[in-house]
What does this fold into?
Amino acid sequence: MKNSLLLHTAVPSLLAAMDALTLEPDFQIFFKKAAAAVRTLLGADGTALILLDEETQTFEYKLFEGEQQHLLNAFKGFRFSSTTGISGRVLTSKTSIFTRNYPNAPDAMEQLVDAGLQSNLVIPLISSDKVLGVLASSWFAHTESVADISPQLLTLAERIASQIAVACHREKLEVQLRSLAVIDPLTKLLNRRGVLNCVDDSLEKLHRYNRPFALFFIDVDGLKSANDHWGHETGDILLRDVAQRLSDVVRKGDQIGRLGGDEFLIIAECDESHIDTLAKRFLQALRVPYGKGRKRGRLSGSIGVVLAPQDGVDEINLLRKADAAMYIAKSQGGDRFQRASVKAEEPQNRLISVVDVEGALERNELQLWYQPICQLQDLSVVGFEALLRWCKPDGEVISAGPLIQAFESGRGDLEFRLGNWVLREAARQMRLWNKNSLTPDIHINISPRHFLHPSFLVELQILCEQQQGFGESLIIEITETAMLEDLERAKRIMLRCRDLGARMAVDDFGTGYASLTYIKRLPLDIIKIDRSFVADLPGNRVDWDITKGIVSIAHALGLAVVAEGAEEFEQIGSLRELGCDQVQGYFIHRPMPFNDANDWLQHKPLRIPTRGMLTHTATKNSSAEKIKAAANDELAQQCAKPNLATALYLQQEFNDPRFSITPRGKSRSA
It folds into this structure.
């Protein structure tokens, strides 16, 4: 070959291929450019990309570029063994092979001979010393008209092939990364994101082509028991088995994915007449026996079914109805399916579903609200309890109770993700307080499952390392249930929390089953008396005696006592008399958003009415009546926080400076 040919034809072809690799993100467009460069360089009729499937050890025709596309387009998707043909020899030798007379070659493939292939050049696509496939250039003219390929041209063609190999490797990695984003690593099914994308696709087909479909919302019965008795490794094996069984019975074209935990979703194009048949097929697949002897058990499934468009035409509404129907099936004993439209969509105590909470979290509609906690001695603010709220776009605010009930009844990982979100959000808002030189304590409730889960300590340690002082301001509230579920493990976690600076509080004390032995053994700092013991003070003698006993025991163990649910001043007086250390309740303030809590903390109402203003309507019968009258006084009502007027009254009535309203951590100058 002459140098001028290399300069004017070969080298520009190589540079075009390399530019295409650098500048073109779309692999198919890049291949067209690179293949065209090779075809121009060699004078071939076409160039094909043939990739190796390592799992099946077969070659597959992927792409073809050239003038004879009508001849080889039919071969797209054609597979053949990696040990046959000239491509098989190239794979073994890792060297290029030019076959001038292809029909007479001993390993010629009959299909290609019939297509008219006369000559071909097969170049290995090698990346990181690994053959990914071959690049096959083809000639369909008579063999006499095809000249031998010079070493210079072959070298340049191989250089372009090496660029194609790099692009193939990059494309393969990108495909793997894309699959990781939508594939559940445990079951190899679609993950939550992947299967919900399929729901969106099905809704699009419904709108465009009027193709109805059903959602089968599946919860595996008995898996939690298997995890508890035989460990999560056994549970993972069972989950993989369930996933495989369901995959075996879904129809071609149906989509199946794992939403999380032991929840699955199947999307099936069908109408009402097919639902019973499909649901029974899925139930049969879910009846999984496992173990032997005393360790023998059996799984089953609860399925909620919705049909689009009859039951809705948007993702959130369909999933919510399917989840509610599944809950009905489970409440009836499981191993059955329930149509969403057959019975009431949701029982009254299931108005908020796990799907609602999941959506609120994804749309950033959840907030932390804060309720003050004060020292009983002087009503100075020592901290806040962070409480979860769902603030809907329409202005409705959902309190923590229904949200907790929803995610605790869920079977996925929402409880852990939401708990970690609460920790991160509290740390973020604590940082804002610290900038203003305010250091209130923050009480955070941690659910039993989350407290015992490995993600809790991991998340807490990261936050404490990232934000200095967060651990020292944090008070972790757990229930007696979390302590009793696994006492030794709970103790180890508590000690680790203390190592990070956090303090431990037992919430709703007196409503569970924790004995004094447990309280003594565990590294606790605070006991929070349940509001049910405070509500009837001071009139209920039984509650009085129980509260007095709890306070005495707590103080004997060196624990502080916080009383919850104080709404009346009479309760404040009783709790002070009983020796409680701190108080929380509507008497101090209702829960409020962070900005309001911040303003309240920095700008407390300091207008103090005169003694005459506060007492002129009071009778002389009792201090309680005097206080009630003061709270109703017109001037007292003008205070931004009327319930604090009673404290101001005490400050003047008894000349007691301890009743000044000063938040802890707030500078005097502020």
